[in-house]
Every structure is written in structure tokens, then in C-alpha cells.
Amino acid sequence: MEVEVARYAGACYGVTRALKMTFDAIDEHETVHTLGPLIHNPRVVSSLAERGIEPAETLDEIEGGAVVIRSHGAAPQVIEEAASRGLAIVDATCPYVSNVHTCAKELAEDGYAIVIVGEPNHPEVEGICAWAGDALFAVVDAPEDLPEQLPARVGVVVQTTQERATFDAVVDKLQECCEEVETRMTICGATAQRQDAARELSARCDVMIVIGGRNSGNTKRLVQICSANCTRTHHIEDAAEIEEGWLEGAELVGISAGASTPKAHIDAVVDRLQELQD
């Protein structure tokens, strides 16, 4: 049995940066909280808690010290409120997410009604909504979710971890119905790389294993992509979840991993597969 890791897999720049900024904050501040889970990886969030870095759902839960704005970003009002409370702000918002904020704000200022292509309840999307402000028109994750009555002028941005095909489908529908559609393709390069690599590898594999948090949107999309090519696709958070029966008759086992998955987690899965092979 051969094991192959996708060419692009695991923690992206934004996640690596957020983790480094958070660990650096421990050395500078007596107490450190993240505003919500820093990233969508329960194992990593647990390891942060072991270091004394606890997530807080609201600013009311933080009495002092530093607050880390997670990689998904936050509403500008939240950051302003944190500053007014005298908290030290560590802004670990992924730069690609910050770019979406800027695009949404600029399109709103130019008079467009804003459509966001993304998951309505995802924290990244909630932050983008806040930056769009009163110009926000709709959040959709498929063209059929668009309202029947649409504005004449629409500006479109997209959650950084969405699939390009979904973005294109929504834009196509808007162009059929609106007088003017201004788009900003804000899917980050790391997302596209991981999706393309997972698609290519899963088309060749007998079994695919995708590593990442079950609450991670980008990981779930990798699972969907792999499942379309390889019916024996399994989503795990930990190497211990792998069952020997999954590998029966497999000549090639592929591994992909979400953008919040550290390299150590991938290495542990490779080691586990090798143990089961021996």
C-alpha cells in the first residue's frame, strides 16, 4: 500500500501567522484570550487552553490583558469596543480575510448592494457582513438562494474558503437579472491550491483521508471534493480515528488536510497508516 499526501495540504499562512501571534502574546501579557476559537481545529484550541489561552465568546468574559482577534476576523465595532475597554488587541485576522473586508467596504461606499457568497453563520462571513454595513443585501452559498427581487447594482465578494465554481454560479445568475454586477474574487490562493490538489489526488486513490476540524468549513469542502472522486473518503480529526478496515484492498491511500491542520497532525496520520500496513 502506498501513501501519498496532497501537494498542498494543511496549515495555511493565515493560520500559521495567527498561532505565532497568539503564542507571542503569552510572553507579553499576563492573560490572553481569543475572541472565539482562534481557528476551526478543536485539537489546536485545546492545546492553546493547556497554555492558558482560553476562548471567550464575548468581550464581557474578558476582564483584562490581551484579546486575540481570530483568523476569521471580527466586526469593526467589536475591535473598537475592545479598545475602549482598555484591552490589548492582537489582530490575528488573516490578511486574505482583511482583503475581503476592504473590498466589501469599498463596494458599499461606491453604492453597490452587497452579496456575499459564503456560509451565512460562519464567523468569517459574519465579520464581512459587518464591514458591508447597511449595504449588505444577501448572504448565499448557492445561486438558488438568491432572492427573487434583486437590486439593479450589485457588488459581490466571496468567503475566502469557498469553491470558485460556487462563486461563478452565483455571479452568472446575478448577471442574468441585474443591470450591473461588480465582482471581487476574494477566495484565497491557499484555498484554491488545496482544493485543486485534493481533487487531483482523490481521482487516483482507492481511499482518501481528510484531516481537520469537523467544524471547519474549508475542511468539509475538501471532503466533498474528495468524495466526488473517491467514495472511500473519510474525514478525521485525529490519527487514532483511522480504522484498519478502511484500508482493505487499497493500493493508494491519499491524504489531504484543511487549512487549520498543523503539519504534525498530518505526520501522525502518515505514521498511523504505516503502522497499520506493517
Describe the protein's architecture and organization.
- With 278 residues, the protein is an alpha/beta fold.
- It is 41% helix and 19% strand.
- It is built from 9 helices and 12 strands.
- It has helices spanning 13-28, 42-50, 76-84, 95-109, 123-132, 164-177, 189-202, 217-229, 263-277, and strands at residues 2-5, 32-35, 54-56, 66-69, 88-91, 113-117, 136-140, 153-158, 180-183, 207-211, 233-236, 252-257.
- The strands form 3 sheets. It has a 4-stranded parallel β-sheet with strand order 1-12-10-11, sandwiched between helices. A 4-stranded parallel β-sheet has the order 3-2-4-5, with helices on both faces.
- The longest helix is centred in the first third of the chain and has 16 residues, at 13-28.
- The termini are close together.
- The model has no long low-confidence stretch (mean pLDDT 96).
Residue-averaged pLDDT, rounded? 96
With strands numbered from the N-terminus, the spatial order across the biggest sheet is 1-12-10-11
Poorly predicted ranges: none
Largest sheet report = 4 strands, parallel
N-to-C CA distance: 10 Å
Tally of separate helices: 9
Strand content: 15-25%
Q: What class would the helix/strand composition place it in?
A: alpha/beta
Succession of helices and strands: EHEHEEHEHEHEEHEHEHEEH
SS elements, strand count: 12
Q: Using only CA atoms, what is the Rg?
A: 20 Å
> What spatial form do the alpha-carbon principal axes imply?
flat
Share of helix, binned: 40-55%
